[in-house]
Specification:
The protein contains 4 helices and no strands. By secondary structure, it is an all-alpha fold. The N and C termini lie far apart (52 Å).
């Protein structure tokens, strides 16, 4: 789970840097980087076990999928917060401007 969190954080930071450098939307860099982090195999096994009637295994694997997905979301969120903090502000706030 921590690997997914730090992986999403790294993808988000690198995606923001590349987006600024290339002057392209950040989503172009982030989505392809986040797709390998998604626990598709575990989700498949959870659904399969649910269909086969192995409820306890299905619940355990579903909780694992939810926790990994949450870790990816939190890591990506932290990366976006860091990108917003470090982004240069191009305009002066209204309350500082002279009228």
């Amino acid at each position: 789970m921590m690997a997914n969190l730090f992986g999403a954080l790294a993808v988000g930071i690198v995606g923001s840097i590349l987006a600024r450098y290339k002057r392209m939307p950040v989503i172009i860099f982030n989505i392809p980087g986040l797709v390998p982090l998604v626990p598709g195999g575990t989700a498949y096994r959870a659904v399969r076990n649910l269909v086969l009637g192995n409820i306890s295994q299905a619940v355990t694997q579903s909780i694992s999928v939810i926790m990994v997905a949450g870790a990816i979301a939190v890591g990506f969120m932290f990366a976006q917060i860091l990108a917003d903090i470090t982004r240069k502000r191009s305009s002066v706030p209204i309350w500082l401007s002279r009228h």
